[in-house]
Amino acid sequence: MKNISPILFVSLVICFFVKQTVLAQTPPLPTQLTPNLFLVTTDKTAYAKGEAVRISVTNHSGKSVRVDSYSNPPCPLEQFLNQQWTTVPSVSCSCDDDVQCNMSEAYIDPKKTYEFSWTQTTSWCVWHGEKSAPAKPGIYRVTCPLNDPLSRENRIDVVSQNFIIKE
Prior knowledge:
Blueprint: H1 6-25, E1 38-42, E2 46-47, E3 53-59, E4 65-67, E5 77-81, E6 84-87, E7 94-95, E8 100-101, E9 106-108, E10 113-118, E11 138-148, E12 151-159, E13 163-165
Parallel strand pairs: 2-13
Antiparallel strand pairs: 1-3, 3-10, 4-9, 4-11, 5-6, 5-11, 7-10, 8-9, 11-12, 11-13
């Protein structure tokens, strides 16, 4: 410190405080949705043909999310065929009373679970009541695209564990 000039010392002190002030005034970045804060599950890993499959989407984050209503269906069912995942045609479903669920979108509040069921005979959950053929035996999964309600760009896809439909 003996060899440092007073002008240089004062300049360094001023730079330090200016940098700290600028950092303190920078707004925080928006929090991103991260897949580990959401869980898509089924009630079992194997089902008999025609047995109802109950699917739950749990929000472990601190903010509400929207099941992306611009996907059709909102949480598509996929079957593993020919070494790739293929979306199953849309179907009808039932929503529980715990969340807002209408013809086009569902919101999942923090620490809440959104549930729906697939009966296999009426096909997949889509809120519009469309029907398609019953499920074929095979390996399935569900992918739910979730959005921050305030930012359409902030989207993640949360995938369930695989489940089997037996003959």
